[in-house]
Write a structure and sequence with these properties.
With about 325 residues, the chain is α/β, with parallel strands linked by helices. It is built from eight helices and 15 strands. The structure holds flavin-adenine dinucleotide.
Length: about 325
């Protein structure tokens, strides 16, 4: 089987690897590769952020967890196991995503940031994205995969000319190359600061400090963030950064005064729901995009399903 994957973010690379494992000869075509993709900007911890309750999300999340657990055994992959605390409203019901979260439990008072009353503790994984994406690229190339640089103007036209299966993993790019006007940007700004020795992820997904998160990595800590729907600006905003630093120091006081070493903005591929299906007009075309704030979280589970759909082509 010949396969072409359009897109070299976390979704495209995971799909490309699963297609190889299914026996396909795979080429990846992309406008940008690491470190120039949206995936590179992601924090990135395992958590179904800004996703509606949907049984597919739980299935895809569990599929990703299985692979992340394997990857975390080798530090060179950029993936590590971590503990995460997600703040919650006092008395909040068990969230729908809890079933795809190992170690899920209510946080003890002494585990919470000062002034916070409730939260959930989970076992999670952090992927240091530029390291992780490079490791995925290397794994793909070692298995005989090849990259091509360039834009695909129309994925359906590409699929009609192609011999084998074509996977559309273009994220926000699907708005243009698949003509999907329901895909929109969710702007995320982050600051990177020196790591004062932190290991745990702390986040306030929808409370008074939302959207704030602290994600320690090997050399720095990623501090977020924003989730600005429909905003296409890629320029970091200084006022927003001040706000991010202030909120994150409330989540983790050891961050107060931490030196900023970098800043970035990424446009998450928003969509009312992830699109993972064969195209009605081009049956050898499989779409896999629109992962919003959860592309890393859902990547391997989606890639498993893309490989299964590709086998039907
Ligand atoms: C600040 C921030 C924090 C985040 N934190 C997390 C987190 O903690 N956990 C998590 O799971 N997710 C997180 N995300 C979300 C995650 O980054 C995205 O869901 C994910 O990157 C989407 O991956 P993708 O491969 O679909 O898209 P992308 O990474 O955007 O890759 C798309 C690829 O398609 C290519 N492409 C696009 N159009 C074309 C075209 N026409 N022709 C050829 N190539 C094309 C691009 O060049 C690129 O290679 C975060 C995002 C941001 C911005």
């Amino acid at each position: 089987m010949d396969a072409r994957v359009v897109g070299a973010g976390v979704v495209g690379l995971s799909c490309a690897i699963r297609l190889q494992e299914a026996g396909a000869r795979v080429r990846v075509r992309a406008l940008a590769r690491t470190p120039g993709t949206t995936s590179d900007v992601a924090a990135a911890y395992y958590y179904p952020s800004r996703m509606a309750a949907d049984p597919r999300i739980l299935r895809w999340g569990r599929g990703t967890l299985r692979e992340l657990a394997r990857l975390a055994e080798d530090p060179a992959t950029g993936v590590r196991a971590a503990k995460a605390i997600h703040l919650a409203r006092p008395g909040a019901e068990r969230p729908w995503w809890a079933d795809a979260m190992p170690g899920f439990r209510a946080a003890r008072r002494d585990e919470l940031p000062a002034g916070q009353e409730a939260g959930w503790v989970v076992d999670t994984f952090v992927a240091e994205m530029p390291v992780y994406l490079r490791a995925l690229e290397a794994r793909f190339e070692r298995a005989g995969g090849a990259f091509e640089a360039g834009r695909v103007a129309d994925v359906r036209a590409l699929a009609r000319q192609a011999q084998g299966v074509v996977v559309n993993a273009t994220g926000l790019g699907a708005r243009e190359c698949a003509g999907d006007a329901s895909t929109y940007p969710i702007r995320g700004q982050v600051a990177r600061v020196e790591n004062p020795g932190l290991l745990d992820v702390v986040s306030d997904p929808d409370g008074p400090l939302a959207v704030a998160y602290v994600v320690p990595r090997s050399r720095d800590v990623v501090l977020g963030g924003t989730a600005q729907e429909g905003d296409w600006s890629l320029a970091p905003d200084p006022k927003t950064e001040e706000d991010i630093l202030r909120k994150c120091a409330l989540l983790e006081p050891r961050l107060a005064g931490a030196r900023v070493t970098g800043r970035a903005v990424g446009l998450r591929p928003g969509r009312p729901a992830v699109r993972l299906e064969r195209d009605a007009d081009a049956p050898n075309l499989v779409h896999c995009y629109g992962h919003g704030g959860s592309g890393m979280t859902l990547s391997w589970g989606c890639a498993d399903e893309v490989a299964a759909l590709a086998r039907q082509v």
